[in-house]
């Protein structure tokens, strides 16, 4: 029996509420040459009952339960990849779902062009009540970009492949070392950069993936603990050493970091966390604190101008003294 073309890895932890919809959306793909590997990370809900109901499905090849929680989604990624037999990997998060044409749309171009190492689509972000929060977009229906250029344009300021479920990647393009598993929050960002630098990246403008931001989401916790800044700054510094870049691009990265930091600094769980974050950001730019102070001053001046303008309009002075 020949190996499947795609290995679909479903890492699950306490997502019984969403698990059936996730698995059905995988099994009902128009492209059917795939195996499914289900990994449960010691769930405390009724995930086991739902998973077991799929055991006899011909596409479900492997089901594994951890006796102890791994503490890391990226360790589950690595475990699933080690069990996979396919040439392409899709990490389908257990609380997401997708359109039936997902694999057809993303895998078909990769089969034709061996230089494509990652293929990803656009996503709809929903809350736990299925209310749409936002939708990603791309200016082209389909675009192939050289890996280093993709990283420069789409990965230095932030992680454009923000949800693992939106992407399929070529197994032969895996990072040589599993350094990504040592991150608690930004391991995916590091992972996608390393894979992208092995070849080309296909971006589909089609919206084919749905993912959730809900009460179990770790993003807010990661920001409170400063993990987002501590880990992502390391990744940016690492990447800047590997690709060609301009001073302007670095300046734009620092500006975005500074503005993001100002939005989050009052939410850090302690002064110690704040100091660690500043220390790490200073590695990116020794004058980081001075830049944040400049932005603060600019924001205060802007607020004063807006207040004055509002009063002028209220007093109906004809706008002749607007700042």
Helices and strands in order, then pairings?
Elements: E1 6-12, H1 16-27, E2 34-40, H2 47-52, E3 60-65, H3 73-83, E4 88-91, E5 97-98, H4 102-112, E6 116-126, E7 132-135, E8 142-146, H5 147-154, E9 167-170, H6 187-196, E10 200-212, H7 219-224, H8 227-240, H9 247-264, H10 271-284, H11 288-315
Parallel strand pairs: 1-2, 1-4, 2-3, 6-10
Antiparallel strand pairs: 4-9, 5-10, 6-7, 6-9, 8-10
Helix pairs in contact: 6-8, 8-10, 9-11
Can you offer a commentary on this structure?
The chain has about 325 residues and is of the alpha/beta class. Helix content is about 45%, strand content about 20%. Strands 1, 2, 3, 4, 5, 6, 7, 8, 9 and 10 form a ten-stranded mixed sheet that branches. Helix 2 links the parallel strand 2 (about 35-40) and strand 3 (about 60-65). Helix 8 (about 225-240) packs parallel to helix 10 (about 270-285) and helix 9 packs across helix 11 (about 290-315). The termini are far apart.
Tell me the structural class: alpha/beta
The H-level CATH homologous superfamily of the largest domain, spelled out, is Spore Coat Polysaccharide Biosynthesis Protein SpsA, Chain A
Number of strands: 10
CATH class division of the largest domain: Alpha Beta
Strand content: 15-25%
Helix content: 40-55%
Q: From the alpha-carbon coordinates, what is the Rg to the nearest angstrom?
A: 22 Å
């Amino acid at each position: 029996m020949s190996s499947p073309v795609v290995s679909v890895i479903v890492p699950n932890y306490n997502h019984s509420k969403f698990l059936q919809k996730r698995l059905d959306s995988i099994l009902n793909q128009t492209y059917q040459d795939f195996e499914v590997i289900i990994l449960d990370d010691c769930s405390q809900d009724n995930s086991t009952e739902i998973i077991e109901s799929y055991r006899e499905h011909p596409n479900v090849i492997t089901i594994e339960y951890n006796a102890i929680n791994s503490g890391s989604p990226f360790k589950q990624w690595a475990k699933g990849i080690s069990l996979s037999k396919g040439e392409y990997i899709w990490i389908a998060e257990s609380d997401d779902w997708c359109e039936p044409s997902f694999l057809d749309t993303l895998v078909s171009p990769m089969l034709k062009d061996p230089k494509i190492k990652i293929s990803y689509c656009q996503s709809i972000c929903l809350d736990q009540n299925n209310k749409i929060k936002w939708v990603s977009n791309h200016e082209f229906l389909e675009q192939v970009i050289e890996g280093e250029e993709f990283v420069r344009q789409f990965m230095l300021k932030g992680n454009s492949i923000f949800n693992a479920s939106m992407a399929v990647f070529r197994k032969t393009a895996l990072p040589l070392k599993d350094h990504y598993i040592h991150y608690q929050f930004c391991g995916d960002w590091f992972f996608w950069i390393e894979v992208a630098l092995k070849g080309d990246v296909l971006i589909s403008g089609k919206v084919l993936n749905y993912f959730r931001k809900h009460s179990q989401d770790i993003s807010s916790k990661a920001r409170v603990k400063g993990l987002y800044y501590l880990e992502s700054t390391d990744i940016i510094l690492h990447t800047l050493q590997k690709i060609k870049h301009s001073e302007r691009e670095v300046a734009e990265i620092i500006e975005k970091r500074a503005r993001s930091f100002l939005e989050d600094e009052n939410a850090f769980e302690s002064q110690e966390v704040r100091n660690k974050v500043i220390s790490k950001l200073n590695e990116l730019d020794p004058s980081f604190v001075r830049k944040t102070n400049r932005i603060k001053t600019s924001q205060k001046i802007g607020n004063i101008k807006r207040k004055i303008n509002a009063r002028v309009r209220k007093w109906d002075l004809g706008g002749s003294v607007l700042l």
